[in-house]
Amino acid sequence: MPIITDTNIPHNRPDIVMMDKEQSQLNNNGKGFIIDVAIPLDENMQKTYTEKIRKYQDLKYKITQMYKLSSVSVIPIVISSNGLVHRNTKQGLPTSLWFEQCGTTH
Hints:
The chain is α+β, with helices and mostly antiparallel strands. The chain has one domain (about 15-95). The protein has 4 helices and 3 strands. The protein has a 3-stranded mixed beta sheet, sandwiched between helices. It is globular and about 45 Å long. The chain starts with 15 loop residues before the first strand and ends in a 10-residue tail after the last helix. The mean pLDDT is about 80.
């Protein structure tokens, strides 16, 4: 589902978007995350990671403005078709998301 914005943004369909709008309304300190998953061949992992970061910069800026968030991070989750995980995916994911606030399934 595309993210609706007031201007035309070509890359507006990330896999997951998370926003802490409640914090933003309280003290303009809300955070947002644009998460996109890719499964490239081993030799294309770095290219894919870089492309995901570049691709969502306009959407990142627009979401920050629209929802008055203090920051929005683009988090590419890149896992190769052979199961290799990009090194930046492993470093950035656990510290960036507020898993304790997310629902769980049993």
